[in-house]
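Sharing a chain and its predicted structure for anyone who wants a worked example. Both blocks are below, sequence first, tokens second.
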Amino acid sequence: MNTKKRIWLTGASSGMGLEMARQLAAQGHKLALTARSEEPLQSLASKYPGQILVVTADLTDVDAVKAVAERIDQAWGALDLAILNAGTCEYMDLPNFDSALFARVMQVNVQGTAHCIEAVLPLLRKGEKPQLVGVGSSVTYVPLPRAEAYGASKAAVRYLFQSLELDLAQHGIKVSLVSPGFVETPLTAGNDFPMPMQVSSEKAANTILQGIEDGKREISFPGAFIFVLRLIGSLPAALRFMLTRRLVRPTNSEGSQ
């Protein structure tokens, strides 16, 4: 990004969020970094005195998110770019459906994102060429086993940002959606299944930031992986079911994994 911007980035303490923060700071942008873990944010801020505002918060707490926006407003008075990257992932182990797990994932990925949108729009309306970016997932291209909670939450994020794009156009706010495949992060490090075409956090961050700079409506990667998912998702339902059913883990007679 050539023009220096005032940017709010959530989920900035690890993975591609931290890598985006590093790259944006190196480019000279003013950053407001939010996460629940403060130490990684302060460590980065110490390398860029006066450039980074550390505003830790639990994004599921609407009052905490409003407090973050107030601090940004007091510091800068406006935002030019908001990247809502914070999220979580938990997988179901059926046949025992875990509604508490489902609620946790939805609370972070959907409600937390909604809190951020409510807080950030007044700041973006005062910014220069404002842009709102949400991080979804390529899981929304095709239903996958064990992804009932995560997939549903990211499908909600996709619909949310596609609707926002329509409504915010008249207010001059550009909206973009990020749909990554598997990225090497502390979160995906706990996955117990193959992750084809996985990319590094550094490469993912670079791809996202370049897509934002190019004004892309949707930033999806890696290309070959996205192509395969979209192809499977476009198949007739019966054929799609036959292909993806093979990914389901076998269970014993009692339904345990």
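Comments welcome. The beta strands are 6-10, 30-34, 52-54, 81-84, 131-135, 174-180, 218-221.
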